[in-house]
Amino acid sequence: MKRFCKECGKEIQPENRVCIHCGTPVDGKKRVNDSKKKGTSTENVMKQSSSENISQEKRRTTRQTNQTPSAPMSKKKKRMLSIVGGIAVLLIGFSIWAQSYQSPEAVQKRFYKAVMENNPKALQKLVMHENGSSASKGEAKALIKLVEEEGEYVLHDLFTVERDGKFLFLYKAHKMEAADQFVYYPDPVKGLTFSFNEIEPDIRKKTLHGPLIPGIYNVQASFKGDYGETTKEGEITLADYYDDETYLDMDINVADVTFYIENVVDLDLENTQIKIGKDEIPINDEGSTKPVGPFILDGSQQVQTVVKMPWGKVESEPIDISEEHMSIQAEVLSEDDYKAVTKLLTNFGEQYVEAFAENNTDPLKNVSKTVKKELKEKMADELFGDWYYSGEFMELNIDRNSIYFNEDEETPSINIVTEYLFNEDYHELEDTPVLYETYKLLVTTLDYDTKEKSWRIADISDDYWGAFEGTDTVEGSQKVFGPSDETVKAAKDLAEADEMDDFLESYTRASVDAINYIDFSYMEDYIVEDSPRWEEARDYIDYLDSKNITEDFLDMEIESIDETEDGTWEVTVLESFTIYKEDSTDDKDFRTKLVVKKIDGELFVYELLETNEI
């Protein structure tokens, strides 16, 4: 009949006197009880015991008769037996400890202790993945950080005790099995890798990274591509109970990029490319490239436009790459050409105020005849009569993005939107100018001379209604230009000529009236009293009256005015009259030279020097 240990309940072999499982001694009482279970009476036991005693006595007597006495056990043998017994006891004790050490309860207890004592090395030995692989040091640290921040409770549903082979090849071993965690990143890019606490896990379906044990991980995203490399760091908590993936909410800013040329209609597409490093990428008929990259979209990488223009190959300034779809403006002017154009436009601002101040287009340089004609007409409209111009050129604002290439024109040209700021005033000559700010928004057309390799202003127009956004500002000299001495003299001469013309026409008409009405009083207010012309005019009226001659005034024009002294001029006049005689009527032209004086601010005829029929 099988026997079992009263302490641990495990089976005991008949020859064993102690339980090899727990070391509990097996006493004789147990065997008596076993006999009772078989239904053996006390009397039978006594008889059986007496019988056994008689038999044993006979066997002993026989052995004593047939055998010689044995020698006593040596010390060496006794020592060996003692060692063997000790080893047996140690083996039994170690066996008991090993089974206890690898019990589920003990493994779980050590696991919790390692977590709470921040012992990643111990955790590595206690934790495994669902496939049985061991946890790494980085995973152990992530788990410790998770418990530190979230609390011990997170361990309850994320870890279970499971069998893990043999301990020392003999005993059942156990470990804490983690619920595998997977990281989901939906936008995989060639050259982009992730590490979690310096662990690079396997990748499944291009979007899943794992498995990893639960924990809080430091994430490092690393990108290395043909056009650059970068790293970015973040953090992720992996503690999912339901076998779901954890989304990695991390903006890596790495993607393929499509470039679009905004001013494509201005360009020859065959001569336009996108330049990245040393690579030149063509654009299609719609002005865009195929997807290129991947790139780091943080502005650390740059792109340029390259366009072949009549004035040479133009490369734009580097443009930061920051979006998956980049709309960029292709430069149509090189930096040298742009500087030349800017200088030309700045000089035009200076020349503009000088020309208006002088009421003359001569100061305008490097401009077409069309521009001079337009400005001359503008001067005539605004500087009529006694009006003059004073002004200063303050600054020029240029919208570089507005530059437009006139591809269809015979002469290569561009349009550019400019804004000029002037301080200016239109005033009478004797007034002190009061300058006020004036903005002039112009669309300027500039021609390029391919032989001279130079620019000139071909046309200007104020017909622009768009929103102006200046990109570059250039200061003017802020030198004030006003009417020059020559301008003032010319203006005075013109004013005097106009005054002289009005006076002499009135004088001639009055002379005709005096002749026709035989009355000197019609003209006496135009002649210096008692001057050579005074009596001469009276006598001439009487002479024509005697000849019965009358006149009609037709036209008059001043041929020349020469100032002989202050307030005195010799004036040559061309006159036309119809002469009526008794027997004829004739139209006649005369050249008449007069001396005119200004007395008390008024003009008078002083002398008739000569008059000759032409």
Describe this structure in words.
This protein is α+β, with helices and mostly antiparallel strands. The protein has helices spanning 28-37, 42-66, 75-101, 104-116, 120-126, 137-150, 335-358, 369-382, 485-517, 532-546, and strands at residues 3-4, 11-12, 127-128, 159-167, 171-178, 181-184, 192-196, 203-204, 208-212, 215-225, 228-238, 246-247, 254-261, 272-276, 279-282, 292-296, 302-309, 312-315, 319-320, 325-328, 387-405, 413-428, 436-449, 454-461, 472-475, 550-565, 568-580, 585-599, 602-613. Strands 14, 15, 17, 18 and 19 form a 5-stranded antiparallel sheet that branches. The chain has a 5-stranded antiparallel sheet with strand order 24-23-22-21-25, covered by helices on one side. Strands 8-9-6-12 form a 4-stranded mixed sheet, with no helix packed on it. Helix 4 runs antiparallel to helix 5 (120-126), helix 5 crosses helix 6 and helix 9 (485-517) packs parallel to helix 10. The longest helix has 33 residues, at 485-517.
Computed over alpha carbons, the radius of gyration is 60 Å
Shape: rod-shaped
Number of helices: 10
State the low-pLDDT regions, or none. 28-57, 59-68
Short descriptors:
single chain, 614 residues, alpha+beta, 5-stranded antiparallel sheet, 10 helices, 29 strands
Give the secondary structure arrangement, pairings included.
Elements: E1 3-4, E2 11-12, H1 28-37, H2 42-66, H3 75-101, H4 104-116, H5 120-126, E3 127-128, H6 137-150, E4 159-167, E5 171-178, E6 181-184, E7 192-196, E8 203-204, E9 208-212, E10 215-225, E11 228-238, E12 246-247, E13 254-261, E14 272-276, E15 279-282, E16 292-296, E17 302-309, E18 312-315, E19 319-320, E20 325-328, H7 335-358, H8 369-382, E21 387-405, E22 413-428, E23 436-449, E24 454-461, E25 472-475, H9 485-517, H10 532-546, E26 550-565, E27 568-580, E28 585-599, E29 602-613
Parallel strand pairs: 3-5, 6-12, 13-20
Antiparallel strand pairs: 1-2, 4-5, 6-9, 7-10, 8-9, 10-11, 13-16, 14-15, 14-17, 17-18, 17-19, 21-22, 21-25, 22-23, 23-24, 26-27, 27-28, 28-29
